[in-house]
Amino acid sequence: MLISDIQKEIIEEFAGLGEWMERYNYLIDLGKNLPMIDQAFRNDDYLIRGCQSRVWLNAELRDGIVYFTADSDAIITKGIAALMIRVFTGHTPAEIIAADLGFIDEIGLKEHLSPTRSNGMVSMINQMRYYAMAYQAKQQK
Amino acid sequence: MLISDIQKEIIEEFAGLGEWMERYNYLIDLGKNLPMIDQAFRNDDYLIRGCQSRVWLNAELRDGIVYFTADSDAIITKGIAALMIRVFTGHTPAEIIAADLGFIDEIGLKEHLSPTRSNGMVSMINQMRYYAMAYQAKQQK
Amino acid sequence: MTDFPILKIRSDFPILSQMVYGKPVAYLDNGATTQKPIRMIEAIDKIHREQNASIHRSVNFLSDKMTSLYEEARTTVQNFIGAPKTSQIIFTSGATGSINLVAFSFGESILKAGDEIILSTMEHHSNIVPWQMACERKGASLKIIPVTDIGELDIEAYKNLFSDRTRIVAVTHVSNVLGTINPVKEIVQIAHSHGVPILLDGAQAVQHEPVNVADLDCDFYAFSGHKIYGPTGIGVLYGKEEWLERLPPYQGGGDMIDQVTFEKTTYNVLPFKFEAGTTNFIGAIGMAESMNYLSSIGLENIQRYEQQLRDYAIQKLGAIPQLRMYGTSEHKAAVFSFILNNVHPYDTGLIIDKYGVAVRTGTHCAMPLMQRFGIHGTVRASFCFYNTMEEVDRLCDALNAVLDLMG
Amino acid sequence: MTDFPILKIRSDFPILSQMVYGKPVAYLDNGATTQKPIRMIEAIDKIHREQNASIHRSVNFLSDKMTSLYEEARTTVQNFIGAPKTSQIIFTSGATGSINLVAFSFGESILKAGDEIILSTMEHHSNIVPWQMACERKGASLKIIPVTDIGELDIEAYKNLFSDRTRIVAVTHVSNVLGTINPVKEIVQIAHSHGVPILLDGAQAVQHEPVNVADLDCDFYAFSGHKIYGPTGIGVLYGKEEWLERLPPYQGGGDMIDQVTFEKTTYNVLPFKFEAGTTNFIGAIGMAESMNYLSSIGLENIQRYEQQLRDYAIQKLGAIPQLRMYGTSEHKAAVFSFILNNVHPYDTGLIIDKYGVAVRTGTHCAMPLMQRFGIHGTVRASFCFYNTMEEVDRLCDALNAVLDLMG
Ligand SMILES: Cc1ncc(COP(=O)(O)O)c(C=O)c1O
Ligand SMILES: Cc1ncc(COP(=O)(O)O)c(C=O)c1O
User: Average pLDDT of D140-151?
Assistant: First the structure.
């Protein structure tokens, strides 16, 4: 599936949800079901700096495809991380770099993404892109 | 004459004057007629610091009585200095220290005396009092 | 329960009738910043519309009036905190600006390699980092007063931190995280008994109780306008005259000088020596208006009412078994830091926000204190005199909803 | 003469209809501080009434909105001065605060004993004293660009001031006394041709002409909110990213840190590294609103109209034979410094004030420039785009009245 198709799918899922309570419930479920990151990666080297909830992120490249895993100590943040992984994982570096993340706005999570919101969400997305850029640079060598 | 009587006299003189133009004219005349300070005193040692108009002040004690002379490069400031000298000169240190300068307010010069007005007027009055205090301390020794 | 005119007071703060997510906002983030009374809002508006002009240095009607208002504001602050002279009141950009001023000027003129500065574990970063920077420049080091399990300063340990290299103590009056009201008078006396000066960080104190710096006998006292119902970008540093005379200026610029040549510059008298450039004179006047408003209600009345709020909140929050409170001293402001079992503070904050309850979550700019308690953050509800018992209830209801949702 | 909508513009500034001594004020003290457009007054009022909350660090509806407004203000400033990135816009307390930041952080990290800094004779004290203080701490010295008789920088002399010890140049964009608009692009190029960075003091420039820092290629650019029709207590520092990354922080406190322990503190990313404590976020938003207002009129239009005012004033003031003008460069803003023969500037200022004409008299925080011209002060009339040709006439009539009175 294209990254844009996955985003559409998510937008549709959220459209079926009611007010914030259902949305948060959904994110909490996503967070609970996100496979935990390998404990080996749950350390400061993989920590994304953000004032409040901590997010650990790992990426691996296999056969030209990027796979992300993540964890967070805050469950709603973890739910958002699960969404991000669903959107980005299994794609090529080039696709990830080119992707426009319009869905965040449309599912009402924009407030979680203001550049200075202290939850590390923006940093997480940036970090995912940096991984993709690094892999792309490696491939082109 | 008592310092308070001199102040009354000045208040009456000003009451006879019309709007600001006449008051300023009066101050300008006073300034013009103020005997210049002895050139020997027109130097930085006698300068009262204030951002804008410079005021030089000297005091002398003769037979227990204080005599002030002053000069300024701004004529309205000089006129106000002339008023201050008229009020303070010829009195004992104790009288000068005890004096309440209510007249300044009553003749509409209050704006010239705000603590931070950069014309050195407040500094001049303070300096006159300091002279008086110094002389009093000397007498009491 | 009280004859405090809470309805009248709430009507003095326009923002309190704002709705968020369809509910009237329960603003419990007063430790971060406070709301503005109509008097101060209107004072600022009037200056902008009718009075604004440059202070001190221009010769005209508007400028004279503006200067008077500014210097009257200084007198208001002087009276508000019981300072002996107006020249001891320095307008700064905020508590952070005030503390940086002292840390820099004291650091440059007094600190030598090997010297020591005493801080406490419960300091806000604004009362840590400036001292760290001064220590780094001068080769000095920090000694830290520990905090007990209930969130009080360990005074016996404090006494043992002094050495003949101790140069200054810097301690907060009221903790922004725990709410602990430190025994500052005693803390000052101990410092002085060692001949050491002391700065008190009053950022969380001046708005909640009557403060008298002469009585406290502290050498410096710092606080922020925006936390005392005033504008942003303005703060106060009070200092003992002897210290202010002795310390070199902090920033260079207009108004703080006496004479400038390229060879040599001499400095203005107090307080102007420490007020470089065009100050936030409109902010200063706004802050003074807020102080006048507080005085019209009476700081003692405010303190008493806030104690009632505190006691009620202790009882209600204490009834939530999954809630772990940090800071349980008897001497405590109406500031509550806590964690709900197994729920991340950030999740808690996000959810109760949807109930219209505004709090702050995170480390509250006090990471060393978080480390002391082995946590990464808390939820903080900080009350003030326009809050109500009903808002305590709303907080607790929202917290119970969080527990349901996350359960 | 012009299709500039001056009546509409004047009605945007409530204070311009104030009466002083029974006359509408002719506010010609815009070099000291500027008046506030209704848009910005209402923006501040609305924040105080409806929106205020702590930025960045709280998790709630109001705080999120406030944070967005603050960061949008940063983007507005970025666009207003053509900065490549928002992270290059640092909110400070004013031009003085901005220059002190650079002088300190540059001084601490770069300056060594024997190094040299180039300033000019026409600098404001705020662009002199911070550098003197840095020099004193580090054993560096100042080299001064002379000013010609008509009040221009002597560019040839400037070129000869560079040595291999020159570390930075700090020069004003527009002189606050003479009105001279310096050829800053050339001045920047000369500095860069010697591999030396340059700070431009834009306090008197950004409000009068379109400024593009990327085009100027300066390394730092500083200015004040209150001089660009915004609130007091707020200012801007722009810096090239490389420099801002390289310089150490200036003040310590909340928000500027990444991690704090008592052993070691690491700092936040740009621009936050330089914004310690609670910034004047309301002031920043107000200033941005003023910039939006200026942009809606068009800086080019403002510049053109102010040039017409300038030309008319040159002609009218030139017709007073007893008036001696300081600063007669062709490249000049509508700022006029002068002395009436034998009349002290202070006397002049006092008297024309009674005619409702507000000017500033004195040294204008530029004592070295006064020394250059062998004077103790001037009368300064500084115009901006809400002033009128009639106000030029009123100034001249008042000056003639002074001459009559003092004659
Ligand atoms: C050229 C120049 N630089 C710097 C400043 C200092 O600005 P502020 O006092 O707003 O910090 C001023 C204004 O006073 C100025 O005219
Ligand atoms: C105890 C304490 N000190 C200092 C500060 C810093 O205040 P500001 O950010 O207003 O400079 C704060 C508030 O954040 C505080 O709570």
Answer: 98
ipTM given for this complex = 0.95
Q: What is the pLDDT of residue B117?
A: 52
Report the range of poorest mean pLDDT among A50-64, C188-202, C293-307, D91-105: A50-64
- Closest ligand to D279 CA? 2
Chain B residues within 8 Å of chain C (Cβ atoms): 49, 51-52, 111, 114-118
How is D83-142 classified by DSSP, letter by letter? -S-GGGEEEESSHHHHHHHHHHHHHHHT--TT-EEEEETT--GGGTHHHHHHHHHHT-EE
- Torsion sign, CA atoms C186, C191, C192, C194: positive
Q: What share of chain B is helix, strand, coil (3-state, %, to 5)?
A: 55, 15, 30
Contacts of C226 (CB under 8 A, 6+ apart): C33, C34, C94, C232, C233, C234, D278
Active-site choice (B1, B36, B51, B137):
B51
Please indicate whether residue D26, judged by its CB atom, sits closer than 6 Å to ligand 1. no
How many beta-carbon contacts under 8 Å exist across C and D?
A: 327
Contacts of A115 in chain D (CB under 8 A): 71
Is D277's C-beta closer than 6 angstroms to any atom of ligand 2?
Answer: yes
Q: Do B51 and C71 touch (CB under 8 A)?
A: no
DSSP assigned state of D253:
-
With cut-offs at 50, 70 and 90, classify the pLDDT of residue B54: confident
Residue C175 CA, closest ligand 2 atom number = 1
Its pTM stands at 0.96
Q: Which of A49, A51, A116 sits opposite D67 (nearest CB)?
A: A116
Domain assignment of residue A44, given as a range: 3-140
> Would the pLDDT of D364 be above 80?
yes
Q: How far apart are CA B69 and CA B85, in angstroms?
A: 7
CA distance B74 to chain D (A): 5
Q: Is the confidence at residue C332, as pLDDT, over 70?
A: yes
Q: Is the pLDDT of residue B119 over 60?
A: no
Cβ burial C147-184 (10 Å sphere, 16+ → b, else e): beeebbbeeeebeebbeeebbbbbbbbbbbbbbbbbeb
Residues of A with CB under 8 A from a CB of C: 20-21, 24-25, 28, 51-54, 73-77, 118-119
Q: What is the pLDDT of residues C85-135, one digit of tens each?
A: 999 999 999 999 999 999 999 999 999 999 999 999 999 999 999 999 999
Q: Looking at CA atoms only, how far is residue D267 from chain C in angstroms?
A: 10
Q: Is the pLDDT of residue A17 over 50?
A: yes
The whole-number pLDDT of residue C1 equals 46
Q: Ligand 2 within 6 A of C95 CB? A: yes
Closest residue to B116, CB basis, from C59, C71, C258: C71
Ligand nearest to the CA of C237: 2
Q: Which fold has domain C6-30+298-406?
A: Aspartate Aminotransferase, domain 1 (3.90.1150)
**CB–CB contact C67 B52 (8 Å):** no
- What letter would DSSP give residue C50? I
Q: Is the distance from CB of C49 to CB of C63 less than 8 angstroms?
A: no
What total number of domains does chain B contain? Answer: 1
Q: Where are the domains of chain D?
A: 6-30+298-406, 42-295
Here the CATH number for the domain that contains residue B70 is 3.90.1010.10
D355 and D398 Cβ atoms separated by less than 8 Å: yes
Distance from CA of D346 to the nearest CA of B (A): 6
Question: C42-295: which CATH number, 3.90.1740.10, 3.40.640.10, 3.30.565.10, 3.60.130.10?
Answer: 3.40.640.10
CB of residue D100 inside a 6 A radius of ligand 1: no
Beta strands in chain A (DSSP E): 47-48, 55-62, 65-72
d(CA C227, ligand 2 centre) in Å: 8
Report how far residue C343's alpha carbon sits from residue A107's, in angstroms, rounded to the nearest whole number. Answer: 24
